[in-house]
Structures are given as C-alpha cells and as structure tokens.
Amino acid sequence: MHPQQDHIKVTAEELRAVSAGIEATADAAARDVDEFDGQQSVRSGEAAGFDTMASAGSCEQGWQHAIEIAGAKLAVAADKLNLNADTYAAAEQQNIEHFRGLR
Known about the structure:
103 residues; 3 helices
C-alpha cells in the first residue's frame, strides 16, 4: 500500500456493518415520526383557539418534516455505503485473482 494511504484499512464487511447501523437509525427515525405523528393535534383539541397550540402544532409538523428528511438522507447514505462495499469487495476479488495468476 502507498505510504500516504496506509491509514485506509477497511473491509467490505465493515462497510456493510456500518451501512446496517445507519439504516437502522433511519428506520428508527421513521418509526418515531409515525409514532408521534399528530400528538400535538390531539392535545390541541383541549385548548382549541389558543395561538400557543397552533404554534406548537406548526412546530411539531416542522420537526416531523425535518426528521423525515434526515431519515431519508440516512437511508440513501446507507444504500451508497452498501453499494461501495459491493464495489470494494468485487475490486478486491479481481485483484486477488489477478495476482494469483502472476505466480
């Protein structure tokens, strides 16, 4: 390995494990949004007409939207990392087969 790149030591399995962790986080975020969806709306019925409740509902919707976007981005990152692991493993296998043929 080139001296400037000797700090890069990763396996396809490690990349897949990290990808699975990221995907689990994205899934948990989606479950949390689903679980808490509309909680403020339920409570706002108790104090309908108060500006505070309308603002709280708007805030809740904003946070839900932000979490949904973050979860989607995490899911895409997990997919990319998994694809990178596949590419890395394939390239590594090709290199092994190539150098075996040179013996």
